[in-house]
């Protein structure tokens, strides 16, 4: 079998959820100052109806990771707010 036929046989497109996840990981990398390549390496996909979709394992992992990041940001904001209030009282 020629290389062109094999290549055409195994050609897949990303689903919209994979594309959205790539965009989200780029945004996270920009906001956190982390390397986007490291974030992209974590993405897991499976084949479904000739499209690559996010694996359920990755979706669960990603949601948990995002929840942890948002909780950390919220705690940090609350800590900074409390520190600013303390400083105002001391002045």
Give a description of the structure.
A three-stranded mixed β-sheet has the order 1-3-2. The radius of gyration is 21 Å and the shape is elongated. It has one domain. The protein is about 70% helix and about 10% strand. The protein has four helices and three strands; from the N terminus they run H-E-H-H-E-E-H. By secondary structure, it is mostly helical.
Structure at a glance:
The protein has four helices and three strands. It has 91 residues and is mainly alpha-helical.
Descriptive keywords:
single chain; 91 residues; mainly alpha; 3-stranded mixed beta sheet; 4 helices; 71% helix; elongated
Give the topology:
Blueprint: H1 3-9, E1 13-14, H2 16-32, H3 36-41, E2 45-48, E3 51-54, H4 56-90
Parallel strand pairs: 1-3
Antiparallel strand pairs: 2-3
């Amino acid at each position: 079998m020629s290389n062109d036929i094999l290549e055409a046989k195994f050609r897949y497109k990303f689903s919209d959820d994979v594309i959205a996840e790539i965009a989200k990981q780029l945004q996270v990398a920009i906001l956190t100052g982390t390397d986007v390549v490291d974030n992209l390496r974590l993405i897991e996909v499976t084949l479904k109806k000739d499209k690559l979709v996010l694996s359920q394992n990755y979706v669960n992992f990603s949601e948990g990771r995002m929840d942890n990041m948002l909780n950390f940001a919220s705690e940090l904001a609350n800590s900074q707010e409390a520190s600013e209030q303390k400083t105002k009282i001391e002045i």
